[in-house]
Design brief:
Strand order of the largest sheet: 1-2
Structural class: mainly alpha
Number of domains: 1
Helix content: 55-70%
Shape: flat
Distance between the termini: 46 Å
Strand content: 5-15%
Order of helices and strands: EEHH
Largest sheet: 2 strands, antiparallel
Length: 99
């Protein structure tokens, strides 16, 4: 199955196969999730290394903007990042291996 999208100008038509569209959707979702991570941990990163925090902020912001534009063009549903729990969850206890 192929997915077609036109640019806003209506001049360029792109056809994308299903696997590639799924990969694009994954990348867009990951970029938006990374943006939510930056929003949560950016202040902490600035305390450790301000220059790195500024560079990371700019790179992530550009990625999020591009991901949202691509998602809008290709009608991709982006994840809702508002409810992400960034706290470390306890690791399940390892079960003993039986032979």
């Amino acid at each position: 199955m192929k997915h077609s999208a036109e640019s806003e100008e209506g001049q360029q038509k792109v056809t994308i196969d299903t696997v590639t569209l799924a990969n694009i959707a994954l990348l867009c979702g990951e970029a938006v999730t990374l943006g939510a991570w930056r929003d949560r941990f950016g202040p902490s990163l600035r305390q450790i290394d301000r220059a790195a925090a500024v560079k990371a902020h700019d790179l992530i912001s550009e990625s999020v903007i591009a991901a949202r534009q691509i998602a809008r063009t290709l009608s991709i549903q982006l994840p809702d990042t508002a409810g992400i729990n960034w706290e470390l969850s306890p690791r399940p206890a390892a079960r003993p291996v039986q032979f």
